[in-house]
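User: Hi! I'm working on a homework problem where we have to compare a predicted structure to a textbook description. Could you give me the structure for the chain below?
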Amino acid sequence: MISIETKKQKVILVVDDVAENLELLARNLQRLGHKVLLATSGAQALEIAHAKLPELILLDVQMPGMSGFEVCTKLKEDESTKHIPIIFITAKTEQDSVVEAFSLGAVDYVLKPFYNEELFARVNTHLRLKELSDEIKEKNEKLEQYVDMVERNIAISQTDRDGIVVYVSDALCEMSGFAKDELIGHKHCCFKSGCTPQIVYLQLWNTITNGNQWRGELLDKKKNGDFFWADLTITPKLDENGEVVGYMAIWLDVTNKKKVEELVVTDHLTRLFNRRHLEAELNSIILGHNRRSEDFGFLMIDIDFFKLYNDFYGHHKGDEALVAAAESIKSCLSRSGDSAFRFGGEEFCVVLSNIDKNGLTKVANDILKALQDMHIEHQKSPIGYLSFSIGGALINPQSADFDATIKSADKMLYEAKESGRNRVCLSF
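Assistant: Happy to help. Predicted structure tokens:
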């Protein structure tokens, strides 16, 4: 027995030129709890369909003036009514009428005289299908909205297993300045700034090709040559066998955040890291080297007779000398793990990662030579130009902390000054 219970009243349009047929269909359908609209002609059916947009139309084939087939054709041609399911009601049993009904877009047919149970079953089935179709349509529309939001607001790229780009979002194009056809079919090499050590890319590629997610910050380059910082998350796409078949990357422009961070950790005059950053980082550096059982080097650099230089040439010239010294020190640091800091006043310090005594000696003397090569006049100095004293130590991280590291290098800096300045003194 077919249930006549329904959860929600539906609107059904019944079209038949015979009044008795309309009344019979209306009574039967109202038993299902639906609202029934009646039309006695094709023209009236089109008018009601456009005005009320029913969930289902039961349409008689044989009608004077405009046949059911003609009505169906007009409804399917109209964007507002094309999705309304149509069940034809016909007394004909010829195969060609049935075939024509389906070719015009009908979803079903019922032969006269019809049985209520059959009619109810077909009506309920197509109402449910229409309801599901509407739900799918609504979900697809929402999905399209979400996809559009993602496309416009989230910077995404997808590549195949070899790193060839197969998709980029509008947001990534907006961020980078590259058009989609300039990225798709190519690798991400066009983003490389040249400032990121190659080892970082090797570690990244090794991580994702082994099926693991990688996240980090990279300094990238836009099409116009401007640099931008990207917080990048790359997730491998796996097939049913767990094999990597591609990668999806989400890019977040963190350039402004990096600028703020840089202001916090950078000395505003020399653009070296400041003492606050040294205090925050040095213990982490010590722990990292201890974990890897690696020694590191620490240098302290002081400008000789700098107070006399400032008093004689003025603070403006003194600032210029500090900036020049900072640039010379940085020019001698070529490894990614090496960092230079302004310790305060006319003092600088340098951290040299994973180094031995020969390496420490070489870098320290390279720095001294680079500083001497500036040959900045200093009439109040015994040697006539700006000179520098450097003290340093090879640090065993097992017994080191921040204070001990500073003390070791400062002791050697004192020795360099006491023994005549303009020289390097190291302890191993």
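For your comparison, note the following. The radius of gyration is 40 Å. Residues 266-427 form a domain with the Alpha-Beta Plaits fold (CATH 3.30.70.270). Good luck with the assignment!
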